[in-house]
């Protein structure tokens, strides 16, 4: 059964269309990440689901109930904000209990729920402190606790880790994942950080310009991006792109850019690759090998090393190929000198081919 | 090289120069400005402590030879304001009776206005806000006569209620602007969080927003206290003769044409009238600047 169902949702601010006819179905207990650059409408969509923004068209169902016109409190959601949004004048305990007191729950029940949340999030010793006396990580934990005590079906996270430093962010990321495993609630999580998206999500919805570009599990998004935007947005270091065309060579398709020929025999296209088709060939830095000697003909070529960036576990080597700078991820054991001549071996099975005009995957 | 020589090398914190040409310049200008503004006050205090014979000698800058507090007592208790000779204390209490309700009422209404305009945008709320702000730029004189007729028809012309209502209305534009800008500057996510928690209009205002708004309330109180205390126009028109505020009474004392001009009494009465806003600024100037800045930056 679905937990959250969004049907034909549109949102306009005056003449500006922010969300365009979105359809999403989130399964029970699923962790869905809305990912996209700033201004893509991901936070807006989350606010619509929460009921903090009135939508222009469409319907929202939560647990089978049409909540399109419901107040936020009646939707069965809890929300965690980027700036924590803790009530500054209240202690942690009062912050956690505020919603429950508004709802008029008996004191014993409130105590029980706070104790439960405090135990899960390990914030028991902080209950009598004010938010100003907490660290960033503790504040975010309290903010999650405030959603937790509401005992809701759906958790909404609006960039919850963006205000934290890198170390804390990766720690809390693991905690959120663990929390999801423990609670098995439906979670919808907005972020612009692709690492968070890839590590946390069951499915990722990549958004741009108020539209969902691709909605798939993280590995599909990473390996088989549906269009050029998804391909370039996901992955760090970013995917390399070469412009060229398809040519026919002995009956099998070949990608040709300047003096470079890459056989596409191993590529699984979604449609027939017609010769003469202008395409963009995309490949991730780790899907290309470099060596000192020429490899098997057909998918190998020469290149000159431009720069070597050691990153600890591996190195990023920048090369010039067919007049474009591309990056290759290599083992950090061997250093490359600028000006060194190397040979490349592409792995077309892991590459992506896009139409140069529509920018869609071929 | 020995250590005393190496001490000539720049090292550590840079030495401060206390009397650079720039700071001499700044301090002397500040000093002159301060003296310039303090001289009238000095003259007033000195004159109010002198007896009339000493004042007639004409040395307005010289301190009193014989200090007397009689002019202060006279000003407070028995100076003549037109027909009555009960001193300026009548005006003081009238001003208080006008001030306290006006300040409380206008701040309550304006804070709710500002909160609604900041957080509960409704269709036409921007237009409403613009209209309200526009009201601040219309000269009072234009509205006086219509207001006189309106209050007369409502039966509150020449009463305490009348002048309080007028002060409350005229406080609205600037106070609403002040509160709206302050509430807009608070993180909007707090408001969203409270809505998800199920709190409504009044609960969010009273339990979330109000406890965070002390600075802006202090600013509003200062603005209104000084503004209403210093008001002359509305007091003289709408309050009625029995309720004339202190400013009007002061004018009547100072400008009474009968008999000798008692400069010392006039000075004492003036200082007494000015004491309230002076004290307010003195004790809360810090909040005032802070709040004005907080309210003004974002808009």
UniProtKB/TrEMBL annotation, chain B:
Residues 92-284 form the ABC transmembrane type-1 domain. The keyword Transmembrane helix applies. The keyword Transport applies. GO terms for biological process: transmembrane transport. PROSITE patterns: ABC_TM1 (PS50928). It is found in: Cell membrane. Keywords: Membrane, Transmembrane, Transmembrane helix, Transport. Its main location: membrane. It comes from the Bacteria. It is a multi-pass membrane protein. Belongs to the binding-protein-dependent transport system permease family. GO terms for cellular component: plasma membrane. SUPFAM superfamilies: MetI-like. This is Sugar ABC transporter permease. It comes from Phyllobacterium endophyticum. The chain crosses the membrane at residues 18-39, 98-118, 127-148, 154-179, 265-283.
């Amino acid at each position: 059964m679905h937990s959250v169902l969004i049907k034909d949702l549109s949102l306009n601010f005056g003449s500006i269309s922010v969300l365009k006819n979105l359809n999403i179905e989130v399964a029970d207990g699923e962790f869905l990440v809305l990912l996209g650059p700033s201004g893509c409408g991901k936070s807006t969509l989350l606010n619509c689901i929460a009921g903090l923004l009135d939508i222009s068209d469409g319907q929202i169902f939560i647990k089978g109930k049409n909540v399109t016109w419901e107040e936020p409190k009646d939707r069965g959601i809890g929300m965690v904000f980027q700036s924590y949004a803790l009530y500054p004048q209240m202690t942690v305990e009062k912050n956690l209990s505020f919603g429950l007191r508004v709802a008029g729950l008996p004191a014993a029940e409130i105590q029980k729920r706070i104790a439960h949340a405090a135990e899960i999030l390990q914030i028991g010793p902080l209950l009598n402190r004010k938010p100003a006396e907490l660290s960033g990580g503790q504040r975010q934990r309290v903010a999650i606790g405030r959603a937790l005590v509401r005992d809701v079906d759906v958790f909404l996270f609006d960039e919850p880790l963006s205000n934290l430093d890198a170390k804390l962010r990766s720690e809390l990321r693991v905690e959120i994942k663990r929390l999801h495993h423990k609670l098995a609630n439906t979670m919808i999580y907005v972020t612009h950080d692709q690492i968070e998206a890839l590590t946390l999500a069951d499915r990722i919805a990549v958004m741009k310009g108020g539209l969902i570009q691709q909605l798939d599990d993280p590995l599909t998004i990473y390996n088989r991006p549906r269009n050029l935007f998804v391909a370039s947005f996901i992955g760090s270091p970013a995917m390399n792109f070469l412009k060229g065309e398809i040519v026919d060579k002995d009956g099998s398709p070949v990608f040709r850019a300047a003096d470079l020929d890459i056989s596409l025999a191993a590529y699984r296209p979604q449609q027939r690759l017609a010769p003469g088709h202008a395409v963009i060939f995309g490949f991730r830095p780790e899907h290309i090998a470099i060596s000192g000697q020429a490899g098997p003909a057909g998918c190998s070529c020469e290149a000159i090393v431009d720069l070597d960036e050691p990153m600890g576990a591996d190195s990023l080597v920048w090369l010039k190929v067919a007049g474009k700078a591309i990056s290759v991820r290599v083992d950090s054991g061997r250093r490359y000198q600028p000006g060194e001549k190397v040979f490349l071996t592409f792995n077309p099975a892991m590459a992506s081919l896009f139409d140069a005009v529509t920018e869609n995957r071929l | 090289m020995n250590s005393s020589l190496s001490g000539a090398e720049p090292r550590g914190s840079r030495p401060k120069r206390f009397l650079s040409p720039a700071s001499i310049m700044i301090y002397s200008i500040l000093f002159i400005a301060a003296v310039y503004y303090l001289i009238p006050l000095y003259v007033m205090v000195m004159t109010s402590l002198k007896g009339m014979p000493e004042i007639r000698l004409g040395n307005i800058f010289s301190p009193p030879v014989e200090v007397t507090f009689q002019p202060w007592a006279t000003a407070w208790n028995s100076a003549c304001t037109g027909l009555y000779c009960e001193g300026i204390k009548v005006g003081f209490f009238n001003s208080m009776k006008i001030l306290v309700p006006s300040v409380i009422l206008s701040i309550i209404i304006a804070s709710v206005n500002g909160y609604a305009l900041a957080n509960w945008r409704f269709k036409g709320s921007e237009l409403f806000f613009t209209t309200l702000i526009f009201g601040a730029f219309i000269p009072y004189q234009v509205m006086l006569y219509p207001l006189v007729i309106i209050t007369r028809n409502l039966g509150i012309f020449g009463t305490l209620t009348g002048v309080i209502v007028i002060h409350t209305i005229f406080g609205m534009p600037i106070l609403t602007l002040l509160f709206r800008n302050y509430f807009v500057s608070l993180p909007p996510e707090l408001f969203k969080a409270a809505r998800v928690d199920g709190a409504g209009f009044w609960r969010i205002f009273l339990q979330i927003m109000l406890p965070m708004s002390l600075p802006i309330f202090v600013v509003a109180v200062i603005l209104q206290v000084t503004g209403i205390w210093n008001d002359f126009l509305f007091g003289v028109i709408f309050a009625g003769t029995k309720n004339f505020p202190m400013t009007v009474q002061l004018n009547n004392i100072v400008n009474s044409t009968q008999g000798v001009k008692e400069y010392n009494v006039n000075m004492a009465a003036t200082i007494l009238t000015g004491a309230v806003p002076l004290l307010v600024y003195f004790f809360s100037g810090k909040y005032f600047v802070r709040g004005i800045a907080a309210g003004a930056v974002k808009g």
